[in-house]
Amino acid sequence: MSTAGQQENRPDTRSRLLDAAEALFAERGSESVSLREIGRAAGARNVIAAQYWFTDRDGLIRALIERHAPEIESARHALLDEYEAGGLAGSEHDRLHALAGALIRPPAAKLDQGVSGAGYLRTVADLLTRPEPVTEPFGYSDEDGSIPRWRALLEPLLDPDAVVLHRRFHVIRFVDVELAQRARAPGRRDHRLFISQLVDAAAGLLGARTSPETRRLRAERGQVRGADH
């Protein structure tokens, strides 16, 4: 075992590093905090403690996401179970609203979890707003994941062009950015109105019809790509 491992192989070191990362990410975002800063904030005796436990920044971020994922996955699956148990009844608007709620309410619970929840929400938004969005840590392609299930239930309700144009991902990113912004607002303790309004907005975005202009531009782009081949 390395020297770092000998010095930092205490049962709570990994948790303390994640706690420190969440607090720093909540304050400054995940892109501007170094592994060494996280180690110092965690009280680690070796400056490379975070590297020992997580290998690199991506490993730490993956561990942070995985720390919160079971709670969110369980809550979203429960809401989707409830949706399916209702026999998919109700108007299209009601079903879109229910599915928007299933997307939003599980991570929105993090708003009531202090710096831990805020650190998670800001990290998610940072990953999804990179020039090349990072989705791998969220299990979007996992067969048993809640997001693939949510996408499948939602697809029949969407304009076909909206499906092709990745409307669902755009709404996911919009929601996660809004949650991260809310997490940055100091002193706000009652999030019920914010969450309800966010569900309304997401349902409206999901249900929006694709305009003739967008359909025309999409068709033109398809023709250009076909000509390239």
UniProtKB/TrEMBL annotation:
Keywords on record: DNA-binding
Stored InterPro entries: Homeodomain-like_sf, HTH_TetR
Gene3D superfamilies: Tetracycline Repressor, domain 2
Domain of life (superkingdom): Bacteria
DNA-binding region: 34-53
Domain HTH tetR-type: 11-71
UniProt key word GTP-binding: no
Protein name, per record: HTH tetR-type domain-containing protein
Organism of origin: Pseudonocardia xishanensis
